[in-house]
Write a structure and sequence with these properties.
Order of helices and strands: HHHHHHHHHHHH
Membrane topology: Single-pass membrane protein
Shape: rod-shaped
CATH superfamily of one domain: Death Domain, Fas
Subunit structure: Associates with BCL10 by CARD-CARD interaction.
Oligomer: single chain
Protein name: Caspase recruitment domain-containing protein 19
Number of helices: 12
Main location: endoplasmic reticulum
Number of strands: 0
Strand content: under 5%
Structural class: mainly alpha
Helix content: over 70%
Subcellular location: Endoplasmic reticulum membrane; Mitochondrion membrane
Radius of gyration: 34 Å
CATH class of one domain: Mainly Alpha
Length: 193
Amino acid sequence: QSYCHRLQHDMYFLTSTSRLNEQVVDKIVLQLNRVYPQILTNEEAEKFRNPKASLHTRLSDLLKHLQKKGDRHCQEFYRALQINAEQLFNDLPSRKILKTSDPTEIDTDKEQYMLNDRGPVFFLACFSMAAGLALFWYCCNSVFTFSFSSRLCSVLETKVIGRARRILGFSPIIIGRHVRSICMLYLEDISRN
């Protein structure tokens, strides 16, 4: 959507009573007069800052004038409005339409609370996996090697009983049977001491 169409859509909202006061309109006109490339000439700026005319008339004439000049002029108006009246800029009807219709725009309110789209269960599973591997590495590094024989695994499976089975049996991590058995054996040995 072009800035001229957006300005046409926002014209009633901007010109309605008590939306913009005289000081803000004067700041916007001055900014449009002083920005490079110059959007309003000195004569045009004086015309739109004339205190003899009503604010509603000056603002309506300014918006119509910018629409006739083209898209670049309307874009600079929106930039000046954002700088001088940010709350009003955020409340514009065209901004609300853009927010709801643009699927690629990031909603900053949701972004603050959502780290990823997988949710807390995925985070807990990854954290549990990392914690389990760290525990295994720390406790079993000096005792076991990484090549497990089938005999060692069968011995470990028969020794794992008690509280360790209850602790690791309900963990959300999905690890191999051999690693799980070693961790359970280690926890069982600790609980005996």
